[in-house]
Design a protein that fits this description.
By secondary structure, this protein is α+β, with helices and mostly antiparallel strands. It has helices spanning about 15-20, 25-40, 75-80, 175-180, 235-255, and strands spanning about 20-25, 45, 55, 60, 65-70, 90-95, 95-100, 105-110, 115-120, 125-130, 135, 145-150, 160-165, 170-175, 185-195, 200-210, 225-235. The chain has two domains: about 5-130, Roll (Pnp Oxidase, Chain A); about 135-255, Thrombin, subunit H. This is Flagellar regulator YcgR PilZN domain-containing protein.
């Protein structure tokens, strides 16, 4: 199974983490779908992250009827897929960017020579940088945080709440009052990362992205925070091993309480 194609799991309550990757623009969604239609690239349909996906291709886009058509031969596999209680999620890639969206109103259409899976046009999609290991949400019960000293950012040590983590980096929240001096490419030296009692380490961080949050209720920035995406640098092998174990443990436990994308239950025909 191509582990890169597995949907990235997002806690629906973490809207700040989700929003930077969410695409609502109809124009952008049409461009994505048309790219897949023109290329004929394989897409993957998942109902369970631990089960092999069903491979498909985008066959048609009908903007008048607001539908898409995916290849799907009438087999026991596709019948079982449509009868699954879980939401179906489609993933694919464009220029090394992973894209995923939930299927809605899917129905198997049988023809004389071929069958196809018809579904509603996606209302939104998620775009993620391609990763060898999925990003996971840090476990709240251990108050995961990262602490660093950067005189150009703040006079004293800065401690920030870690939101999610992968083998190569993490994202954390910082108030706007602190993020003004941060910029992509900046290196934060000797940062202390604490994930749980068994997983904490020192390493340098390289800032890759800064995603501003929404303004506070009074319209000011003082109540909101930015999401800072960083890469771990010079991580010691033993620390990398503990980090990998931490991520693997969360992935193994994530299925019962996590959804691939936030979406109301759909009635399947």
């Amino acid at each position: 199974m191509d582990h890169d194609s597995i949907p990235i799991f997002i806690d629906p309550s973490e809207e700040l983490v989700v929003s930077p990757f969410l695409v609502h623009s109809r124009k952008d969604i049409r461009i994505i779908l048309q790219t897949w239609l023109d290329s004929g690239d394989d897409l993957h349909i998942y109902h369970d992250p631990e089960a092999p996906p069903t491979i498909t291709q985008l066959w048609a886009i009908n903007h008048d009827h607001q539908t898409i058509t995916l290849s799907a031969e009438y087999t026991d596999e596709i019948v079982r897929l449509l009868n699954q209680p879980n939401m179906l999620v489609v993933t694919g890639f464009i220029d090394q960017i992973k894209i995923q969206f939930p299927l809605r109103e899917e129905v198997l259409v049988r023809g004389l020579n071929h069958s196809a899976l018809q579904a509603a046009l996606p209302r939104y999609v998620y775009k993620f940088q391609r990763r060898k290991v999925p990003r996971v949400r840090a476990q709240d019960q251990f108050a995961p945080n990262i602490t660093f000293v950067a005189p150009e950012v703040a006079r004293s040590a800065v401690s920030a709440r870690i939101m999610d983590v992968s083998e190569t980096g993490c994202s954390f929240l910082l108030p706007h009052t602190v993020t003004g001096s941060l910029h992509p490419g900046q290196v934060l030296s000797s940062a202390h990362t604490y994930l749980d009692p068994s997983t904490d380490f020192l390493c340098h961080l390289m800032v890759h992205r800064i995603t501003p949050g929404e303004p506070g209720p009074d319209g000011s920035d003082t109540h909101s925070a930015s999401l800072i995406g960083c890469e771990f640098l010079d991580l010691r092998p033993q620390d990398q091993g503990r980090l990998n174990d931490y991520i693997h443990h969360i992935i193994q436990r994530s299925r019962p309480g996590m959804s691939a994308v936030p979406q109301p239950p759909q009635t399947r025909t």
